[in-house]
Amino acid sequence: MIAQAWGNQKNLRLLTSDWLARQRALSQESSTLPEPIRKEYEALGTSGEEAEQAFPLPSVPIVLLTGTKKNPDFPGNPLEQDLKLEMHKKLAARTSGIEHVLVPDSRHYIQNDDPQKVISAIERVVKVKRNAN
């Protein structure tokens, strides 16, 4: 059987056994996670739906950062990382003007794992916006 990953994201699928193992691991970790991170997990489905409804995106500079590091010890993570990369590639292809940057030393919290990548992305967006004015 196949289960959907990340809430209602129709294109992202994990084997049911992988999904259940992932959910068990998240449930076990959930009690130790800070409240903001726990709320982030709880809101994944809703935020995916909201992102889909935002199209077409406005014509503004966008830098999409994708962490590609995998954690083979966390159930479903290697496949989930591949699926996230696929989803981000589709987003970049669907939207003109997106600069898609892969961040190999980060999974999700790029601002913690590679803050300079985030700072550089912000600087590029500001520069493009300033040059347009």
User: What is the straight-line distance between the termini?
Assistant: 53 Å
Please write the string of helix (H) and strand (E) elements. EEHHHEHEHH
Count the strands? 4
Write down the Rg: 16 Å
User: In which range does the helix fraction lie?
Assistant: 40-55%
- Unreliable residue stretches: 1-12
Overall residue-averaged pLDDT value: 80
Order of neighbouring strands in the sheet with most strands: 1-2
Largest sheet: 2 strands, antiparallel
> In total, how many domains does the architecture comprise?
1
DSSP helical segment count: 6
The outline comes out as globular
- Structural class from helices and strands? alpha+beta
Beta strand %: 5-15%
Features:
alpha+beta, two-stranded antiparallel sheet, 6 helices, 55% helix
Characterization of the model:
By secondary structure, the protein is α+β, with helices and mostly antiparallel strands. The chain has one domain. It is 55% helix and 14% strand. The chain is built from six helices and four strands, in the order ββαααβαβαα. It has helices spanning 16-30, 35-42, 44-53, 77-94, 110-113, 115-132, and strands at residues 2-4, 13-15, 62-67, 98-103. The strands form two sheets. It has a two-stranded antiparallel sheet. Helix 4 (77-94) links the parallel strand 3 and strand 4. Mean pLDDT is 80; it is low at 1-12.
